[in-house]
Amino acid sequence: xAHSSEQRPPAxxxxxxxWNDPKIRALVYQVIALAAVGWVAWFLISNTLNNLAxxxxxxxxxxxxxxxxxxxxxxxxxxxxADTYRRAIAxxxxxxxxxxALGIVFATVVGTLIGIARLSKNxxxxxxxxxxxxxxxxxxxxxxxxxxxxxxxxxxxGPRQALNPLPGFFISNRGVxxxxxxxxxxxxxxxxxxxxxLLLTLLVAHVSRKRRYQSGRGLPTGRIGVALFxxxxxxGWLIGGAPTQIDVPELRGFNxxxxxxxxxxxxxxxxxxxxxTAAFIAEIVRSGIQAVPKGQxxxxxxxxxxxxxxxxxxxLPQALRIIVPPMTSQYLNLVKNSxxxxxxxxxxxxxxxxxxxxQTGQAIEGVMIIMAAYLTVSLTISVFMNWYNKxxxxxxx
Length: 397
What we know:
Radius of gyration: 29 Å
Largest sheet: 3 strands, antiparallel
CATH topology of the domain at 85-154 and 264-392: MetI-like fold
Structural class: mainly alpha
Helix content: 55-70%
CATH class of the domain at 85-154 and 264-392: Mainly Alpha
Number of helices: 11
């Protein structure tokens, strides 16, 4: 009777640690590099804390809950000198976001128009667009901000001699005053309806795109979007009581009361950022359009499409895949360039934190707050633009 021999698993070769193994060397180098970075960070932090303690300088962020004691000339949220430093810094962040958001929108529109104008067959339009791009790109932004600020403040009179081009509109060296809606729930609901309409329109566009891929027929996104943008804000306004009060500015004494104020500092900063960034965006748009193969334009012309439809339906959608990545860099530059607002007195995050650290003496914490604010905004823009770039990318089947 034959005895069956047991099947033994094959023995695995022993792993030998050898310096000749590239994986071992790579691991050792990474550990050494990580240890070096950690040691440098520990040395800098411990040395800084020791120097601060030697000079009896307080550390930490406890100062944020103390009373600020200084006024801020421009704020979208309620603020008084009796509020805390935390509230003051929040005002600075909101002011920065305000000018950055409007700057991105207007710079995109102006830059796109200038970029298309540079490709115009009209010699005068193309040359004027080229001159604009070359001048704006080669003059430092700080000088442009000084120019716009001087132009706004030095060429306008005081409130009593303010320009009044339209009823309720006043232009003076105090800024621009214009009518604005009074505080009422109906206007707030209308704003919520506007935001809801935007979200629903994006959702409809997404569903329409999926249907077009599956069946070749999409939804009338344009008409649905227009209907939503009209119906939802009006519905919110009606639900809130249909208020009709308008706050019209009036001259009382030596200044205006009521309405909405656009300060000279805000106007100069916004115009400077838009005009400067738009020049770079124009070049990005121009190069993106020129990168689209000419055969695409010729095929669209052969189908009988008008020039405007060829640009909007054929050229620009393909150019976007080239335009979006460098456009992201320009958006980030605009946000970071807004820190130059301190030069003309606009109370952005840098200006407010500078005042805070001058009063408290906690410069390191103040700089860390500024860095964290800009880093958060920049990363948010990058994430959104990367998502959009991936969304419009060509998908291989």
